[in-house]
Here is the input.
Amino acid sequence: MVLKQVLFVCIGNSCRSPMAEGFANYYGRGWLTALSVGSHPAGFLMPNTIKVMQEKGIDISSQSSKGLAAVDLERTDWIVIMESSLAGVIDPLSPRTELLHWFLPDPVGESIEFYREVRDQIEMKVLDFLEKNTRAAESHTNFRDDVLDRILFPVAKRFVAGRTIQEAVRVVQGLNEQGISATLDVLGENVQDKGSAQAAADRYLTTLDWIEKAGIQSNVSLKLTQMGLEINREFCHSNLVRICERAARTGNFVRIDMEGSRHTEATLSLFFDLYREYKNVGIVIQAYLRRSACDLQRINNAGARVRLCKGAYKEPPAIAYQKMPEIRENFKKLVEVLFTKGDYPAIATHDDQLIDWTKQHVRQNQISPAQFELQMLYGVRPETQRALARQGYRMRVYVPYGTHWLPYFSRRLRERKENVYFVLRNLFKG
Here is the structure.
């Protein structure tokens, strides 16, 4: 089989593009070949480039710094430009070649810590690139099974309960034994065809049946783009109705997750339509969005339940707070509103400052722990989850499972540096 080929281009071919070449060849072996060049090659790799890649267990010391003349551009499937000054300078020679832009800072002359930051950004971009393009090449199943599953999934299982509902149920049973309830999420998003959306809705029906059969303390959480929001609104609504009806019959609850800001209004609109008929459905509000106070007022007026989180998607300053002190302050304001006007709010955060503030607020205002719950993600600060449960707080853990685990896993790594350190410690240990 002829392997796909990707070419990474920067200026000196001494830092960024050699890292990308190393990651792509490591994670993509058996499916693609990665090369890297520079517009003005330095002729050598920076020592810190080799060092930070060795920290990942990837040896790139045999790679060389070279120019464009060293590669056959006509055989290249993707050209990835990593330096903004090269945009428009390099053109594909073949109509089948796709040109991508990953403009990342050049670490030359910077500290070893800066090299590591750039390295980690490149790794995430490579993983996203491989996930996207192997999804478009499903006939090559060996990549997903042999590379992603073999290398990453054992580590991802810290954050993902498993591929099957049976594995997820066992995880929830373990949490329940520690006094912690759950919300199960069948992983998947941005579905573009009706068959996949209907299959995703069917998996939620199966999940609700398993929750009832196993007698576990869990509800479900879902994303509307997984249910067909980007295909057709009414089609998406019909899938949601099926799930809400099944949940109502089994005495369960459905939480609609909030996605990126381009879906916020459509998500709220569909939620309000559902809530008129199904009172067992709730919604998520993201504290970093500037609009959230107004949205929360509408939801509280309707009497619906809210999960409040900070927000995990990258949004522009015009619509979202960017600095953590601002996000925390808005989070606190929204919590105060939820405790005075909301119905059984879910406070979802791993932030010690916000957890401590919430505990102090409920003590000062004599709010019973039975009137709200704290929520965290599976695999993130499990000791804190257990400690809060022992202290008498209602703790619910968001437990994802399924085969579409890589985008979720990548977001977990981006959110917290300690998650990256966990992967480093476990991925390459002897």
About this structure: The chain has a mean pLDDT of 88.
